[in-house]
């Protein structure tokens, strides 16, 4: 007993040390601290000095090893936090009864509420009840059945349940980085801490503090830059593997549909053109064929499918149809512009009441004679509205503005004042000749225009010219008319003066006759009383003649005044004459 | 989202997609897995029949220890749902239990549409109308459903 225990102790310690390398993390700090070893070895002191010295040396080395091991373990622990059991992926589906109703994972450290027999993870139920802090310990309502319950000392579940849970097979938490291990859940922490090649550890190089994956440890320090020989990206050797796995565009992957190996950047092309497993539609799908199939099936189908064979023809025709439709739309638009333009030009030129029933060509090429009167009457009014009408045309204002600005300065065709309708309408030749000139001019000779707009503009231009010509003609007509009336007026005036002169002569004669008669009657007047009646009748005759002469001269004077006064006096004259007479 | 999404939320979301509850759908946002667009059909035989109601659902950080926050987006005439769409439902408040899930909560809401409770009102005006003239209130609820809760 006294001689053997030390070696046993040493061998025990050594074994635990050796085990510590394999299973150490399961031995938590309480398991085997160095002080424990020393304490256990000191009471059983060795009898011989040799063995004592050997012991102490061994012991010292052992203690050093252990402290080193613990330090590295702590560092590894820092780099690799304890596995979160709730984040594990289970290899096989598990029984729903093993699922905690709170975290919806297989129980982790399950407890049973003695009040209602419902089971939860210890952490889950603690967290649930933490809000209702109670000095008597965690307690509250059961989350499942709301029975008031508490977490007592005897809440641990049976060993069977724990064993079942620990036997569930999970994937290594580093499976996404490449670890293929599938281990029992109870051993997953050991796997990560000890075996998993993808666990991060410290770089073996003494002067390097960077982390390294455990499986790369034998390669020494990998913390120097290299280039990926596929894509030339610069990175550290330790990251090279991850780069090839997940980010290098040249990495090889398997097509998820047909299992063909290809590089990542070829994937898109493969999916589009080559992958035989991908279901592709018949080429005639747009025209009604609903067939879909794998690539080789689709090829045989498309050789037999009428719709597939006709598809290119259909497509070409559809394209042509679309083009035609677009062209037609454009034409309709142009036509609209034309029609608008014509309508406004027509309304500009023709009296709406006359022009409404006429077609464009009739209205412009062969205007009926009575149209001229209508135009001349409405000219003044339309000249005023010509400016706003211009805005209706879709012309560029820069192109059109010069003529538009000159428009108001054009010679006013006619004073807008009243014009008597009963004056004879002069019918001049050049007025008529000008009218048919423009449509033929613009329709036939200048038809090939670059755009309908230009055509319309030129038409507008010629219509404008036409209008100025018409207004010039109208001005001329107006001049002639006023000349004619002036001439007539002068003739009448001459006649009136002639008549006045004659009347004056006549009145002089009458006067002379009257005075001679009076001279003749005066000597007889004293002696011839009986002739009084006849004399008085003579006097009355004479006065009536005088009155008539006076009235005539008055009328003549008035007519002269009125002839000077201007138009419309003829009626006035006659009225005056009527009242006088 | 600094913390990883709890397994529970991932599992609930998966199950909602893979085994949807009839008449209920919940779709998480692409940029925030804790935020769901919810659609609940009015239960058959109720005055909300034929209506499709949109809700928003948010799982707070301490879910499932505290209830999800949920609110009607579609206007609804209901004594337990106020003008802002907030829902008066015990399991969304004091009676929350972490053993409840999104799907059970949505089923409770659908049940609430089928059985309005004017005795515990959130919308006083609607509750008053419901108590005084129930047939008229039901008619109004029907009109609102036609007006606002139509699938577009
Ligand atoms: Zn749990
Ligand atoms: Zn219970
Ligand atoms: Zn592993
Ligand atoms: Zn290194
Ligand atoms: Zn690369
Ligand atoms: Zn493929
Ligand atoms: Zn086909």
From TrEMBL, chain A:
Lineage: superkingdom: Eukaryota
Molecular-function GO terms, alphabetical: zinc ion binding
InterPro entries reported in the protein's UniProt record: Znf-RING_euk (IPR027370), Znf_RING (IPR001841), Znf_RING/FYVE/PHD (IPR013083), Znf_RING_CS (IPR017907)
Start and end residues of each stretch annotated as Disordered: 1-51, 359-378, 387-437, 517-581
Domain RING-type: 100-145
Record has Metal-binding as a keyword: yes
Basic and acidic residues bias (residue ranges): 572-581
Polar residues biased stretches: 25-50, 533-543
Alphabetic keyword roster: Metal-binding, Zinc, Zinc-finger
SUPFAM superfamilies for the chain: RING/U-box (SSF57850), TRAF domain-like (SSF49599)
The name this protein goes by in its record: RING-type domain-containing protein
Native organism: Acrodontium crateriforme
TrEMBL record, chain B:
One Pfam family from the record: UQ_con
PANTHER family per UniProt: UBIQUITIN-CONJUGATING ENZYME E2
Enzyme Commission no: 2.3.2.23
Lineage: Eukaryota, Fungi, Dikarya, Ascomycota, Pezizomycotina
Keyword Nucleotide-binding: yes
InterPro entries: Ub_conjugating_enzyme, UBC, UBQ-conjugating_AS, UBQ-conjugating_enzyme/RWD
Similarity remark: Belongs to the ubiquitin-conjugating enzyme family.
Enzyme active site: 88
Keywords associated with the record: ATP-binding, Nucleotide-binding, Transferase, Ubl conjugation pathway
Enzyme class per UniProt: transferase
SMART domains on file: UBCc
Residue span, UBC core domain: 4-150
Protein name: Ubiquitin-conjugating enzyme E2 2
GO MF annotation terms: ATP binding; ubiquitin conjugating enzyme activity
């Amino acid at each position: 007993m006294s001689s053997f225990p030390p070696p046993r102790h040493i061998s025990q310690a050594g074994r635990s040390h050796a085990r510590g390398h394999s299973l150490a993390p399961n031995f938590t700090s309480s398991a085997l601290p160095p002080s424990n070893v020393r304490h256990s070895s000191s009471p059983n002191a060795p009898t011989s000095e040799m063995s004592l010295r050997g012991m102490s040396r061994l012991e010292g080395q052992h203690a050093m090893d252990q402290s080193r091991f613990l330090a590295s373990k702590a560092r590894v622990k820092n780099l690799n936090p304890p596995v979160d059991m709730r984040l594990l992926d289970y290899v096989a589906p598990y029984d729903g009864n093993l699922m905690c109703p709170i975290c919806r994972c297989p129980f982790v450290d399950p407890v049973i509420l003695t009040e209602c027999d419902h089971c939860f993870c210890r952490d889950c139920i603690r967290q649930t009840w933490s809000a209702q802090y109670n000095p008597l310990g965690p307690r509250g309502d059961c989350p499942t059945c709301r029975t008031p319950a508490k977490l007592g000392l005897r809440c641990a579940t049976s060993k069977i349940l724990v064993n079942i849970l620990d036997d569930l097979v999970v994937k290594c938490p580093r499976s996404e980085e490449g670890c293929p291990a599938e281990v029992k859940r109870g051993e997953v922490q050991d796997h990560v801490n000890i075996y998993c090649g993808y666990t991060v550890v410290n770089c073996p190089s003494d002067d390097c503090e960077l982390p390294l994956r455990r499986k790369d440890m034998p390669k020494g320090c990998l913390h120097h830059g290299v280039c990926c020989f596929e894509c030339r990206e610069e990175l550290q050797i330790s990251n090279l593997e991850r780069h090839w796995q997940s980010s290098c565009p040249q990495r090889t992957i398997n097509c998820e549909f047909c299992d063909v190996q290809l590089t990542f950047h070829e994937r898109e092309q493969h999916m589009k053109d080559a992958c035989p497993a991908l279901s592709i539609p018949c080429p005639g799908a747009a025209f009604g064929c609903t067939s879909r199939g794998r690539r080789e099936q689709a090829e045989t189908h498309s050789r037999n499918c009428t719709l597939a064979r006709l598809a290119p023809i259909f497509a070409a025709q559809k394209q042509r149809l679309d083009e035609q439709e677009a062209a037609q739309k454009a034409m309709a638009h142009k036509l609209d512009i034309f029609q608008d333009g014509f309508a406004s030009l027509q309304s500009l030129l023709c009296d709406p009441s006359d022009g409404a029933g006429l077609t464009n060509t009739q209205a412009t090429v062969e205007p009926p004679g009575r149209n001229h009167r209508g135009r001349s009457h409405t000219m003044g009014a339309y000249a005023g509205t010509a400016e706003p009408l211009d805005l209706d045309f879709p012309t560029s204002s820069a192109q059109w503005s010069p003529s538009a600005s000159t428009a108001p300065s054009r010679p006013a065709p006619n004073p807008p004042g009243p014009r008597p309708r009963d004056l004879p309408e002069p019918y001049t030749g050049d007025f008529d000749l000008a009218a048919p000139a423009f449509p033929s001019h613009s329709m036939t000779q200048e038809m090939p225009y670059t755009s309908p707009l230009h055509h319309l503009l030129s038409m507008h231009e010629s219509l404008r010219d036409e209008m100025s010509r018409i207004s010039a003609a109208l001005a001329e007509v107006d001049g002639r008319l006023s000349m004619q009336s002036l001439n007539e007026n002068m003739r009448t005036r001459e006649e009136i003066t002639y008549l006045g002169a004659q009347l004056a002569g006549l009145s002089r004669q009458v006067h002379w006759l009257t005075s001679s008669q009076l001279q003749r009657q005066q000597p007889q007047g004293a002696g011839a009383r009986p002739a009084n009646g006849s004399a008085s009748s003579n006097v009355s005759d004479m006065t009536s003649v005088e009155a008539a002469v006076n009235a005539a001269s008055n009328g003549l004077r008035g007519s002269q005044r009125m002839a000077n006064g201007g138009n419309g006096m003829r009626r006035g004259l006659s009225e005056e004459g009527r009242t006088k007479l | 989202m600094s913390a990883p999404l709890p397994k529970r939320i991932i599992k609930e979301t998966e199950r909602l997609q893979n085994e949807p509850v009839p008449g209920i759908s919940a779709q998480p946002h692409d940029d925030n897995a804790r935020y769901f667009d919810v659609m609940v059909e009015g239960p058959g035989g109720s005055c909300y029949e034929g209506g499709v109601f949109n809700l928003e659902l948010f799982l707070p950080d301490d879910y499932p220890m505290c209830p999800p926050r949920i609110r009607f987006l579609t206007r609804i005439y209901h004594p337990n749902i106020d003008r802002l769409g907030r829902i008066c439902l015990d399991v969304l408040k004091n009676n929350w239990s972490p053993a409840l899930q999104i799907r059970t909560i949505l089923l409770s809401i659908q049940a609430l549409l089928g059985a309005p409770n004017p005795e515990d009102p959130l919308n006083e005006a609607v509750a008053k109308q419901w108590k005084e003239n129930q047939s008229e209130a039901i008619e109004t609820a029907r009109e609102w459903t036609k007006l606002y809760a139509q699938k577009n």
